[in-house]
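User: I'll paste a sequence; please echo it back and then give the predicted structure.

Assistant: Echoing your sequence first, then the prediction.
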Amino acid sequence: MMKLYNFFRSGTSHRLRIALNLKGLDAEYVAVDLRTEQHLQDAFKAVNPQQLVPALDTGDQVFIQSPAIIEWLEEKYPTPALLPADAEGRARVRALAAIVGCDIHPINNRRILEYLRKSFGANEDAINAWCGTWITAGFDAYEALLAADPKRGRFSFGDSPTVADCYLVPQVESARRFKVDLTPYPLIRAVDAACAELDAFRRAAPAVQPDAA
């Protein structure tokens, strides 16, 4: 069985758990506690030299970086597909995912926030304002793209979940944690609600992971 090294509240771990569940794949849950800096210890550095979660041990090799792992899953286990069949659709889904994965999450992740706290004395109000700035900018674009899609269905693209939803749902979770007002984003909220109806998303939620206690 594969091993998934992850942390319950990590957005990148969350998106990978969703993808694994949608693919119907089992992986042993290996908790890496970022709160106690377990990821900085030598034992985990031997797994991932970058010392970040998630990492997926397939038994033959270890993959790092959630975008690369999700792409590998899509190529290795193509059914059910998390990318559309046509090139244009795949480009659109990847663009939606990139809004979260490239433009929102990297400047809101834990090590950035810890740096703001330790080096600039940012309190929790400042942290929430920082995160809210970038989440709002990204969600403004995501919402506009959903609104402009004439083929929009229940999910970010069509009527079945895609890679875009794997990225969006954890970011909505983070938005709520950082007290971002989601009222201006009815389409994003509708997609999030549609995803919440699926077992694959419910089982991936941070609150139900073994290290959430």
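The domain at 3-80 is CATH 3.40.30.10 (Glutaredoxin). The mean pLDDT is 97.
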